[in-house]
Amino acid sequence: MKILRASHLGMCFGVRDAIGLALAQTEPSTILGKLVHNESILDDLRSRGVRSEQQLDAVVTPTVMITAHGASERAINSIRERGLKVLEATCPLVRYAHRAILRLAQEGFHPVIIGDRQHVEVRGLTGDLDTFDVVLTEEDIARLSEHARFGIAAQTTQPIDKVRKMIALMRERFPSSEVRFIDTVCQPTKQRQTAAIEMALNSGVVVVIGGVNSNNTRELVVTCAKLCPSVHHIQTAADLRLESFTNAETVGLTAGTSTPDEIIDRVEARLKEFAARPDATPAETFRDKLAREPFPVVDTNDKDAFIAAAKTRQWDREKSVRILA
């Protein structure tokens, strides 16, 4: 069994900066909410004495830290009105998304966020808007009221292909409306999605490491599951089970943007232990997998062309497989 790491995986600069800011504080402060969506990191911060509270009323320190997911100016001002100092760990790319959606609203567009309405980042993006809509499915778009002008931005961790699909549905649903899109999907998310596609296409089993509440991790799971028959979402190496890899020839490895390097390394080390077992047996090859799984129809014998088609996602997954010769 060989292990194939995605070319882009794991912690992004925004998460690293937020953790560094939290650890650098010399005066008492409290993180409002979860700094990042990774329990291993949160446990480590607690062990170092970093405070966190879910509700502002529970804060007893003079300083409140805003998480990497950001918050609305209205929410930040309400904290300051209590006489508390605000320290922002907001990712710069989330700040950009805030500015983008506010600019669209100021220019007369009805704001629409593509994302999970319950996610803390989306609540922050919409917190300064008087009117807005949040959509994530075709059913959400079907429920929208018509407006002359729609201004669209996205939660930074949504896959860009999903965002583009939603924009196309918006334009189809409202052909007489102007639809303007500002791309706010962050570059680390795009890189990890693209790398996950390439990795999953060449893997019999995929392991995705990240917090259960991490949106970008869940989206990596969804993407890999479209391309690989066996995908496991884990948080630490302790979640791995030998029986999941008994017949795996190649195991793909990726991780969400809040997953520390050391956790990825431990997972890889554990997988190498599985691979070294004398009873480990190889499974199917890449061509075998193509013959068995419902991959897209591609009129080519070129593996690189196949991967390129997968990246564009321009296929009908209900069609039969064309086996590569």
Please tell me about this protein's structure.
With about 325 residues, the chain is of the alpha/beta class. The chain has twelve helices and twelve strands. Among the domains are: about 15-90, Rossmann fold; about 95-185, 4-hydroxy-3-methylbut-2-enyl diphosphate reductase, catalytic domain (Cobalt-precorrin-4 Transmethylase, domain 1). It has helices at about 15-25, 40-45, 75-80, 90-105, 120-125, 140, 160-175, 185-200, 215-225, 260-275, 285-290, 305-310; strands spanning about 1-5, 30, 50-55, 65, 85-90, 110-115, 135, 150-155, 180, 205-210, 230-235, 250-255. Helix 9 (about 215-225) links the parallel strand 10 (about 205-210) and strand 11. The longest helix is centred in the first third of the chain and has 15 residues, at about 90-105. The protein starts with a strand and ends in a 13-residue tail after the last helix. Mean pLDDT is about 85; it is low at about 295-300 and about 315-325.
In short:
This protein has 325 residues and is an alpha/beta fold. 39% of the residues lie in helices and 16% in strands.
Helix content: 25-40%
Q: What gap, in angstroms, lies between the N and C termini?
A: 24 Å
**Strand order within the widest sheet?**
1-12-10-11
Largest sheet features: 4 strands, parallel
Query: How many strand segments?
Result: 12
Mean pLDDT: 87
Structural class computed from helices and strand pairing: alpha/beta
Q: Can you tell me the CATH superfamily of the domain at 93-185?
A: 4-hydroxy-3-methylbut-2-enyl diphosphate reductase, catalytic domain
Low-confidence spans: pLDDT under 50, at least 5 residues? 294-300, 313-325
Strand content: 15-25%
Q: In the CATH hierarchy, what is the architecture of the domain at 93-185 at level 2?
A: 3-Layer(aba) Sandwich
CATH topology term of the domain at 93-185:
Cobalt-precorrin-4 Transmethylase, domain 1
Radius of gyration of CA atoms, rounded to a whole number: 22 Å
Oligomer: single chain
Shape: flat
Number of H/I helices: 12
What's the CATH C level of the domain at 93-185? Answer: Alpha Beta
Secondary-structure element sequence?
EHEHEEHEHEHEHEHEHEHEEHHH
